[in-house]
Amino acid sequence: MSEIKTIEGVDVRGKRVIVRVDFNVPVKDGVVGDDTRIRAALPTIEYLVSGGAKVILMSHLGRPAGDGFDEKFTLAPAARRLAELIDAPVAFASDTVGADARAKAAALADGCVLLLENLRFDAREKKNDPAFCEELASLADLYVNDAFGTAHRAHASTAGVASLLPAYAGFLLAGEVETLSDMLDAPRRPFVAILGGSKVSDKVGVIDALIGKADTIIVGGGMCFTFLLAQGKTVGTSLKEDDWVVRAGEMIDKAAAAGVKLLLPVDVKVADAFAEDAATRICSVDAIPCDMMGLDIGPETEKLYAQAIAEGSTVFWNGPMGVFEMQAFEHGTRAVAEAVAANKEAATIIGGGDSVAAVNKFALADEMTFISTGGGASMELVEGKVLPGVAALRS
């Protein structure tokens, strides 16, 4: 496979460089609540600034309708936060490819930064519209993609513009691809993969791919109940996907044939309602009451999973073990997070999404080797799919 071209070593002085970043951050009352994604882009932005580039940033935020400006989704708060984090002037354009963007891009001085307004205010972004791609490309001389979290989307800002300008990867995107690719191609063994979340249908491709690569696969979250059904157990009112029971059984058999340990819960925390104040109890997976639902793994499962995690030399985690957003059902996810953090000898990789939210909630992010910024993108890469935003950067 050809290598990704990175921005390192490229002469950017005096060049207008348009950079796809991921500033899809939480905003409340005009203030960025969590600036993790902005900080993640700083190495690339600062490298370009120090190299004398005229840096033009573009991003989406939220899910606007795509029919014009929407105050709820403006990137102005992100521009203000970036200005606080970086030692360079930061301007903000009130549009994306309109008169203000064109004027401010043309007037940009070396070492200065401009953030364009939300890409998704224009419906042409998600359609990878050729005219929109041309308008974005006309603002710059070079293109850099540093938004791994959107690299699995063939949008104008991730794929289209890359075909019109000399295109490179930023440090964040290159690091993500390298780390995840190395994990899959040459992991230190044993390789332990932890997969959670609500649905088997969302993870079937990932599980299939990892059966050929991992030594142990740990399954938690709502999707475990479909696997338990495949083993002939009853799961009460727990979340399940009846259409995927046979497929789950096939994956159990495939793992066994490949000599891969596929660990499922042995006990769960069940509740009489999907609510914080529900009545709960711990029960074996062989005795789930018909009128209760599993919302977390149980203490014996926590011990089983922690032991398997402790034995890993490479540990990859994507997806919570239960409804960790509710305090009553966070214990299993916390236990897994603590077990991953405790394995100091392993390369510990958090695969984006809710797992990142979990390690942040439990203040364990600094204990992990690598935290991916892209849940969907990391899953598609693990699954073996081509990411359009990455393919566009291959030399």
Describe this structure as you would to a colleague.
It is built from 14 helices and 17 strands. The protein has 395 residues and is an alpha/beta fold. The strands form four sheets. Strands 5-6-4-1-7-8 form a six-stranded parallel β-sheet, with helices on both faces. It has a six-stranded parallel β-sheet with strand order 11-10-9-15-16-17, sandwiched between helices. Helix 10 runs parallel beside helix 11 (331-342). The N and C termini lie close together (9 Å).
How would you concisely characterize the structure shown here?
The protein has 395 residues and is of the alpha/beta class. Helices cover 35% and strands 16% of the residues.
Question: What summary fits the major beta sheet?
Answer: 6 strands, parallel
Stretches with pLDDT under 50, minimum 5 residues: none
User: Oligomerization state of this entry?
Assistant: single chain
Distance between the termini: 9 Å
Strand content: 15-25%
Number of helices: 14
Radius of gyration, taken over Cα atoms and rounded to an integer in Å: 23 Å
Secondary-structure-based class equals: alpha/beta
* Helicity range: 25-40%
Described by the principal axes of the CA atoms, the overall outline is: elongated
Q: If you average the pLDDT, what whole number results?
A: 95
Count of DSSP strands: 17
Widest β-sheet, arrangement of strands: 5-6-4-1-7-8
